[in-house]
Design goal:
8 helices, 27% strand, alpha/beta, globular
């Protein structure tokens, strides 16, 4: 589905992504975890084609949809209007598709996005990405700013979507607990580089690695 080989990205002359190699298979659920400033967002933006790459290669089979950090909804537009923007340029595409997948957002379809809670906004942002009917959905900072309860509910929704649609998911997360409980495999990033990778069970058992690279950032999360 996705193959990244020796990727390099610079911001203002500084290296943000340094020789990163990773891959995601069809219908796989993979997380990218690491502390603030590790280069996770730079990597996912490069994969999505939102920032230029300075070296290496990104190969994608199928369609990718990107859910940005902080949701970035249009706060003065209704939920339904935000969803329709996710189908651009096919503005006439029905939103019934995502309401069937995520029926709970139907109840606030006519409310302005700025009136929703953080968890509701993140769910709408995910639904907006699904409007593109992607083969790979990449979500940047999934649980950022959410309560443990809201994050757990969102994770449950995403796992259900993954199982029902068979799409691949790339979850960018600071919380090790959220990421490793949710995903099959994970990459750990620090200072622009992948410093560890493996199955979630392997990484969970590597307590010293989590303390060294994440500083226990997953503690207390769902």
């Amino acid at each position: 589905m996705l193959e990244v080989a020796n990727l390099v990205v610079h911001y203002d002359g500084a290296v943000a992504v340094d020789d990163v190699t990773m891959r995601i298979e069809n219908s796989e659920l993979v997380s990218l975890i690491g502390p603030n400033g590790a280069g996770k967002s730079s990597l996912i933006k490069a994969v999505a084609g939102l920032v230029p790459i300075d070296g290496g290669k990104v190969s994608l089979q199928g369609r990718l949809a990107y859910v940005p950090e902080g949701r970035q909804l249009f706060r003065d537009l209704t939920v339904d209007q935000n969803l329709r923007l996710g189908a651009w340029p096919n503005r006439r595409q029905s939103t019934d598709y995502v309401y069937d997948l995520l029926p709970e957002i139907k109840k606030f379809e006519k409310r302005k996005a700025g009136q929703l809670s953080g968890g509701e906004q993140q769910l709408v942002a995910v639904a907006r990405g699904l409007m593109a009917k992607p083969d790979l959905l990449a979500i940047d900072e999934l649980s950022l700013g959410l309560s443990p309860l809201a994050a757990a509910k969102l994770v449950s929704n995403l796992i259900s979507l993954h199982e029902s649609l068979g799409i691949a998911l790339l979850i960018v997360e600071q919380s090790a607990t959220v990421a490793l409980k949710m995903c099959q495999r994970a990459y750990v990033m620090e200072a622009g580089r992948i410093v560890k990778s493996g199955t979630s069970s392997e990484l969970i058992e590597s307590g010293e690695m989590l303390d060294a690279y994440l500083g226990g950032m997953g503690d207390g999360q769902p």
